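TASK: fixed-backbone design
INPUT:
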């Protein structure tokens, strides 16, 4: 048994991730509605989370942020290189 999230669109439920079952496989679906949080609720939860972080946790998060930013910069550079190459070819 697995549990994943999905979004209902008409009579179709779009799953948030791939599942390793064959197409046309019959499955049982149990529906639990998830309440959407307001922006105020999201902000409060984020504030509560951040307030509970230790200094060590904050340092780890900062390092993770630095790594992610470097990856984003490399991706942007690669995309720009591809655009430049396409422009040269045309």
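OUTPUT:
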């Amino acid at each position: 048994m697995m549990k994943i999230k999905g979004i209902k669109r008409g009579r179709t439920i779009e799953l948030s991730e791939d599942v390793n079952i064959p197409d046309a496989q019959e499955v049982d679906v149990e529906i639990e509605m998830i309440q959407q949080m307001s922006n105020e609720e999201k902000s409060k939860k984020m504030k509560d989370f951040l307030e509970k972080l230790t200094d060590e946790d904050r340092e780890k998060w900062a390092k993770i942020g630095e790594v992610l930013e470097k990856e984003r910069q490399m991706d942007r550079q690669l995309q720009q290189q591809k655009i430049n190459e396409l422009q040269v070819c045309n």
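COMMENT: The beta strands are 6-9, 12-15.
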